[in-house]
């Protein structure tokens, strides 16, 4: 009932995303049936998971902006909780973790309030300086550098980076006549999804030469380049509908999201390889953890946000 308040371009975008996911689901089923000797289960899992992500996001958008910010804040909380379940933490740091968790609702409150000045410095300045001081007050110095380093990095990728998606919702809608307040976020999530799927499909179809074999043996140059150029090719025609970007700006955004999505993916892969785990969690049964699905967005969200913010806000 609230969809009538959305720009028509956003409603068309949701319909387009649903159509593409239907096509992707059909292709994954067709590939599995036509080439039963090859394993396409990972592709099918990725498509199914994106159905869930898009459905949750759509429900949040259809209610109101406050709900959207709360949902994205909850996603950050789940990602950070999952991250902490992976890394070794010191018993002495449990009180420090309380302050780290407290940073999540505060960060998203600055987002909800549209307070850009505090949103952009709260975690990398105030939280990052407060947490080591709180550790020092506890008095445990053994493993101090490793403990504070891993905690800072977790807050950076799970909270600060992902909170940029929420801040796109409070940017002035008048600066984006085509897509309104929701356009940029849909554009980002859609292109990140396409990049994720395209890199996998290109890699499976043409990939031979490994690009980072010690980190992610399945990643190939063909997959990386195919994904980046596929994303850039879609970024240009979609931009007038959802963003204030010009043709050349949209081309730059597509290349940026393609490259950043790949870096985010392999960065989380490096984390899991270092810890000796295959998946970051079990939150999505059969698909792994929430970080497995948000890995690309941990890089694309902040980089695309500041790209668009610098050009048009």
Outline the structure in words.
The chain is mainly alpha-helical. It is globular and about 60 Å long. The mean pLDDT is 88. It is 76% helix and 0% strand. The two termini are 30 Å apart. It has helices spanning 8-34, 41-63, 65-86, 94-113, 116-138, 144-167, 180-206, 221-242, 247-275, 290-294, 297-312. The chain contains 11 helices and no strands.
Q: What is the topology?
A:
Layout lengths: L7 H27 L6 H23 L1 H22 L7 H20 L2 H23 L5 H24 L12 H27 L14 H22 L4 H29 L14 H5 L2 H16 L1
Q: Over all CA atoms, what is the radius of gyration? A: 20 Å
Overall 3D shape: globular
Provide the low-confidence segments as ranges: none
Report the total helices: 11
Write a concise synopsis of the structure shown.
76% of the residues lie in helices and 0% in strands. It has 313 residues and is mainly α.
Question: Which key terms come to mind for this protein?
Answer:
76% helix, 313 residues, mainly alpha, globular
């Amino acid at each position: 009932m609230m969809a009538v308040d959305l720009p028509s371009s956003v409603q068309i975008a949701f319909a387009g995303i649903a159509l593409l996911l239907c096509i992707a689901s059909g292709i994954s089923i067709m590939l599995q049936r036509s080439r039963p000797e090859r394993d396409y289960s990972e592709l099918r899992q990725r498509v199914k998971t994106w159905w869930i992500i898009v459905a949750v996001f759509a429900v949040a958008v259809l209610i109101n902006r406050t709900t959207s910010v709360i949902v994205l804040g909850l996603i950050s909380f789940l990602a950070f909780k999952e991250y902490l379940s992976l890394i070794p933490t010191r018993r002495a740091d449990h009180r420090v973790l309380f302050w780290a968790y407290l940073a999540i609702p505060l960060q998203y409150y600055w987002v909800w309030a549209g307070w850009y000045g505090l949103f952009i410095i709260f975690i990398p300045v105030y939280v990052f300086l407060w947490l080591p001081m709180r550790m020092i007050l506890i008095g445990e110095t053994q493993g101090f550098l490793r403990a504070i380093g891993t905690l800072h990095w977790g807050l950076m990728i799970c909270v600060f980076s992902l909170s940029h998606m929420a801040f796109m919702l409070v940017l002035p809608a008048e600066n984006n006549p085509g897509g309104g307040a929701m356009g940029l976020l849909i554009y980002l999530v859609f292109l990140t999804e396409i990049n994720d799927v395209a890199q996998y499909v290109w890699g499976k179809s043409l990939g031979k030469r490994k690009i980072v074999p010690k980190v992610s043996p399945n990643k190939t140059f063909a997959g990386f380049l195919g994904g980046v150029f596929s994303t850039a090719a879609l970024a240009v025609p979609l931009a007038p509908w959802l963003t204030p970007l010009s043709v050349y700006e949209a081309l730059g955004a597509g290349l940026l999201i393609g490259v950043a999505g790949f870096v985010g993916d392999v960065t989380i892969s490096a984390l899991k390889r270092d810890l000796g785990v295959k998946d970051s969690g079990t939150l999505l049964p059969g698909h792994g953890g929430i970080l497995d699905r948000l890995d690309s967005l941990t890089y694309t969200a902040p980089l695309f946000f500041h790209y668009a913010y610098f050009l048009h806000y």
